[in-house]
Amino acid sequence: MAERQPKPWWLRKKIPAGGRGAAVTGLLTDLGLHTVCEEAHCPNQGECFARGTATFLLLGPNCTRRCTFCAVGKGRIDPPAPDEPERTARAVAEMGLNFCVLTMVTRDDLPDGGAGHVARTIEAIRALRPDTGLEVLISDLGGGREALETVLAARPEVLNHNVETVPRLYPAVRPQADYRRSLDLLRRAGAYRPRPVIKSGLMVGLGESRSELDRVLDDLREAGCDLVTVGQYLAPSDRHFPVARFVLPEEFEDLGQFIEEKGFSGWACGPFVRSSYQAGELYHRARARISTKT
User: Fold this and answer.
1) Is the dihedral of CA 291, 292, 293, 294 positive or negative?
2) pLDDT of 151-173, one tens digit each?
3) Cα 182 to the chain's mean position, in Å?
4) Would you say residue 278 lies in a domain?
5) Which domain holds residue 193?
6) Edge-to-edge, what's the strand order for the sheet holding 197-204?
7) pLDDT-flagged residues of the chain (< 50)
8) Does 172 fall in a domain?
């Protein structure tokens, strides 16, 4: 891998003082839960924990795939913990979350890709916090149609699946994924009734061109995507795919204008934007816009 580039000034983030960070960390430890905030080395972790939020990572801390951009573990794969849905629900209740994001490692070893486990977690949260809004950020579930319907039948408010990057970079960045399979998942989710809000996310700075990025956004809109997030890729270590360049803040602003003109109901673009960052706020803004269209 190439030598890591030093971060520019706009990617320096202050660690927040105080807040609820220690309480959130303690609760997650006591309940034996994982978060994508920690496992993926998210730069927003301190901010989100201080605000009393976290994005729960289901089905263990290790993934069956070998994406070169991702810091999530690639170690031993254990069977799903049968009580994880209930433990996650307890955390959501104790944190008093009005909106919650659940994500998952990819589990190609499971017949349903882990869909049933995700659905049971949604149901467990509904039992304790029936008014909590839920976003699920899922894998491609191996393309399984029944698996996707299992998740959708649990009625999340938002169904999120990230395409992550442009098709040309998939062999290097997401070698076990398939761009068209991901688009098909989003399209099928958008056709499901009752229909959730459909969301996807991208990283920039991996070597994509602006024209390639624009084509992906066109594809997402054509697939029925309502919400989209775009953030700067940051290599977790020297062993991961290298950053090709740091995208200027004004380029994110221009990209956001392009997304607005494409007719998405909601979007977030910026150096620190991540798929689940301030997800509740983005959902509620988009939900209001969707309601005015229908």
Assistant:
1) positive
2) 999 999 999 999 999 999 999 99
3) 14
4) yes
5) 9-293
6) 34-35, 55-58, 99-104, 133-137, 158-160, 197-204, 227-232, 266-270
7) 1-3
8) yes
271 within 8 A of 127, measured Cβ to Cβ:
no
Question: Is residue 2 situated within a structural domain?
Answer: no
Is the four-CA dihedral 15, 17, 20, 23 of positive or negative sign?
positive
Q: How many domains does the chain have?
A: 1
> What CA–CA distance (Å, rounded) separates 190 from 139?
16
Tell me the torsion sign for CA atoms 262, 265, 269, 273: negative
Which run of H or E residues covers position 65?
none
CATH of the domain at 174: 3.20.20.70
Radius of gyration of the chain from Cα atoms?
18
Tracing tokens 């983030």 back to the chain, one arrives at 13
For 7, the token pair is 């971060």
pLDDT at 114: 98
- Separation of alpha carbons 127 and 212, rounded Å: 44
Distances (CA, A) of 182 to 86, 158, 186, 225: 29, 16, 6, 12
Angle between helices 145-153 and 115-128 (to 10 degrees): 0
Residue with tokens 């997800």: 279
Alpha-carbon span 170 to 67, nearest angstrom: 9
Burial of 158 (0-12, 13-18, 19+ CB in 10 A): buried
Separation in Å, CA 41 to CA 45, 133, 285, 289: 8, 25, 27, 32
* 114 domain-assigned: yes
